[in-house]
Design brief:
173 residues; mainly alpha
């Protein structure tokens, strides 16, 4: 789909997938349904991956693990990253589909809400806090994929520290 979603015929999708066009139409009515399904699968992955091996205590360590989990997911799954960069945003993915995927992020949301309520994080709008945190992860993955930075362990640690500094409550830490 290098030429864009709307310019990509179903025949090309079938060819790339190694299946007959009829097989695709057996499961999906159109390209939008395929895109929505892939988006949902990736969102489910995010929700699980981000919370993997997160310790029960220590908000800073929990934050670091979640941040690194998402960064490592993107680096290990470049097609998922490219997909989300290309089609995982409006207008291709509708607000309705985005809203349907909110349950995949409940544990992440609850962690951030609890950190705000416990005054571990800045008392700012939750959406903004999430965007700042995970926008930093996305920016780091972009730098790596575009070969603009190596994103070695020192650079990853610098980015993680800067992300933490953005969200932590300066009065508590």
């Amino acid at each position: 789909m290098k030429q864009g979603v709307h310019a990509t015929p179903m025949s090309q999708i079938a060819k790339e997938a190694g299946v007959a066009v009829g097989t695709i139409y057996h499961y999906f009515n159109n390209k939008e349904e395929i895109i929505e399904e892939i988006y949902t699968i990736i969102c489910k992955d995010f929700g699980v991956v981000m919370m993997a091996n997160v310790p029960e205590n220590g908000v800073k360590k929990q934050f670091e693990i979640m941040w690194l989990n998402l960064y490592n997911y993107f680096i290990s799954n470049p097609l998922a990253f490219k997909f989300m960069e290309f089609v995982g945003v409006p207008p291709i993915i509708t607000q309705e589909i985005r809203d349907q995927n909110i349950p995949n992020f409940i544990t992440v949301r609850d962690f951030f809400l609890a950190a705000i309520l416990n005054k571990d994080f800045r008392d700012i709008n939750l959406r903004l806090l999430l965007q700042i945190t995970f926008g930093n992860v996305i920016s780091c993955a972009r730098l790596k994929f575009k070969n603009e930075l190596e994103m070695n362990s020192e650079q990853i640690n610098d980015a993680l520290k800067m992300s933490w500094d953005c969200v932590k409550n300066p009065d508590k830490h």
